[in-house]
Amino acid sequence: xxxxxxxxxxxxxxxxxxxxxxxxxxxxxxxxxxxxxxxxxxxxxxxxxxxxxxxxxxxxxxxxxxxxxxxxxxxxxxxxxxxxxxxxxxxxxxxxxxxxxxxxxxxxxxxxxxxxxxxxxxxxxxxxxxxxxxxxxxxxxxxxxxxxxxxxxxxxxxxxxxxxxxxxxxxxxxxxxxxxxxxxxxxxxxxxxxxxxxxxxxxxxxxxxxxxxxxxxxxxxxxxxxxxxxxxxxxxxxxxxxxxxxxxxxxxxxxxxxxxxxxxxxxxxxxxxxxxxxxxxxxxxxxxxxxxxxxx
Length: 296
Hints:
The protein is α+β, with helices and mostly antiparallel strands and 296 residues long. The chain has helices spanning 21-29, 40-51, 78-87, 102-108, 113-116, 130-149, and strands at 2-4, 10-13, 65-70, 91-97, 117-120, 168-173, 180-185, 193-200, 207-212, 217-220, 228-236, 245-250, 258-263, 271-275. A hairpin with a 6-residue loop joins β6 (168-173) and β7.
């Protein structure tokens, strides 16, 4: 499976989309590069929410591996999102190009770092990693699978247990120009934490709030008016993950002054009055002469 990201992650194809090597290679050849920002934390959350689910082709018995390829420092908290994946037994390999932050790559990647972190100076040099990375990936999968079949202690592979682990019924209410209220029904087994991620759908800085698992509501404030927001509520358990909730809602436009009236006219003055706009702290009044030929 493959997802591209900038400020808005996009799934290019799921784990179940193609059945042969040739089909995957053809999809790669047809791929269009997505430029833009570097919100790595949001991208890792997208992978967990959208790509590592049974309905996207993730098999419960299979090892879960994420290969992150980035050419810049993340503009959001990549470490927190990466830790969530690693706590669920998902192994992360981090590959940096050009301006990637080496320290961040080492934070995001799984142990042992000598096998999971790579950095090259330019994109053509990625080809030099293919042979080694392929061997490492295949070896890691065999090692982890062997441990499970021989009964050695390993972290549980994330399993989707539906209502046991997943909150339901996201309700967004009390929407104003600056705020909205979120509430949801908790799963049968309360999670350890909730991660609530929200960002403007047309691009903008994602923000994140981490809540204790006993909490099932949140007030979002300091939002931008007249803007569509994407909201995700992600339950985080010790050894498994439930399905995240997602909602899309627009904040209200700022209120406008109404009922403009003109009075006390003279040869060089007039008085204006209007009904106040709720929440306004100042008004800007513009005045200019009517163009030639227009009504005075």
